[in-house]
Automatic annotation (TrEMBL):
InterPro entries cross-referenced by the UniProt entry: Asp/Orn_carbamoyltranf_P-bd, Asp/Orn_carbamoylTrfase, Asp/Orn_carbamoylTrfase_sf, Asp_carbamoyltransf_Asp/Orn-bd, Orn/put_carbamltrans
Statement: the UniProt record of this protein carries the keyword Transferase: yes
Transmembrane feature ranges: none
Gene Ontology annotations of biological process type: citrulline biosynthetic process; L-arginine biosynthetic process via ornithine
Keyword terms of this UniProt record: Transferase
Ranges of residues in domain Aspartate/ornithine carbamoyltransferase carbamoyl-P binding: 2-140
UniProt protein name: Unannotated protein
GO MF annotations, alphabetized: amino acid binding; ornithine carbamoyltransferase activity
Pfam families, per database record: OTCace, OTCace_N
UniProt keyword annotation of Secreted present: no
Amino acid sequence: MKDLLRTDHLTREDVELLLDTAARFADAPLAERSFLANDTVVIHMTKPSTRTRLASETAVAHLGGTPIFVRADELQLGRGETIADTARIISGYAKALIIRTFAQSDVEDLAANATIPVINALTDDEHPTQALADWLTIRENFGNDFSNRKFTYVGDGNNMAQTWLEMGAVLGAHVVVATPAGKWAPDTAVVARTEELARTTGGTIEVTHDVKSACRDASVIYTDVWMSMGDSEADRAEKIAALGEFSVTDALMNLAASDGIFMHCLPAHRGEEVSADVIDGPRSVVWREAYHRRTTIQAALFHLIRGDIKGRLA
Ligand code: CP
Ligand code: NVA
């Protein structure tokens, strides 16, 4: 597999390889410090980023390469040059392209026209590199056996909810997503696709509107912002009202398994999707999770550029 475009393109073996290497890069960040010597990686983002941008630039530096960061208003792409032409040009200079934007189809178009690996650094649909950091953090807490555990996401049925379903299905885990009904529920096509995949991996997909039952005995309670980048401000009041009962407070955390942890991809809005007590409390692993954004992006660059990732669709 050349690119990392969607979480459910990976196999469990691919994920294990990436997480093993990321764990190595956590202990020894410079273990492959000549891998990208004299080479560049282009990072292009049309949405803001703290973690993904800085983790990507640091990962490239640790591999011995030079990151080139370009904003939307710095490329001719914003002035009508085509995605295909842009992909061809970047392929002539760099070893990989990391891209964050709105439409998943734009990332897929870029990848189809690029001869170098393209890594999706978040779209409206997907956040695969976040999923790698999340599950490395989960593995550090609970080991590699995900059976007999419940992994729950609560909140908006957004790109992170969909990514949670996909990685759960890939890994054969029991994942639960609790969202309000209707507009803020995950895309039904993604639910169907992940249910089908879970049937082949031994996982279970549960989509519910009952937040308390979703959190009961969960090993992980995960949440994300209620207003994502690109969401319409016109929806804010209605959305926040609908999501109120999905706020992760001590009352929800108390329903979790006794060793249950709290996770969040960040940025967080204390007092909205999570209370300060929870995110800053003893069960929160969010700082380790954020740390692993660098280790896992470094692993993704390393293995994609080497051509080690098999992919589920191969
Ligand atoms: N979690 C995450 O992707 O954070 P940034 O938006 O800061 O990159
Ligand atoms: N759902 C959020 C995730 C941020 C990392 C967004 O897309 O803005």
